[in-house]
Specification:
By secondary structure, this protein is mostly beta strands. It has one domain: Immunoglobulin-like (Sandwich). It contains no helices and eleven strands. Strands 1, 2, 4, 5, 9, 10 and 11 form a seven-stranded mixed beta sheet that branches. The radius of gyration is 14 Å and the shape is globular. One of its GO terms (molecular function) is transmembrane signaling receptor activity. This is Immunoglobulin V-set domain-containing protein. Keywords: Membrane, Signal, Transmembrane. It is found in: Membrane.
Amino acid sequence: MQLFVLRCVTSAVGVIHVTGYVGSIVKVSCSYDEGYESYEKYLCKNNCGGSDVLITTSESWKNKYRINDDKTARIFTTTISDLHSEDAGKYWCGVTITGKDIYTEVELKLVPGKQGLPKNEL
């Protein structure tokens, strides 16, 4: 059994609330501070252990996840497609920094049906 110890700094942004529709897609956009443009970014779920990392900016596309880093705006966006009820829950946007990654909490809520585009709330 592997043990992952994470020291994290939570962003001052607070929690990003995102609502999506089952069977649809949702976009999760996370901002980061100046100076981190060249660092790797990622989206993870649960405790962010090895298998909890869903996608990184070095991959761009993995399974149902796509990620794009707009270094000019300093925002990276992860698109999650084919949403299912088990996709709801807590996620973390992360920036890989030696010794202490920077995290922003994301809460994804799903509602039944496909009633238009997902709604993002900050």
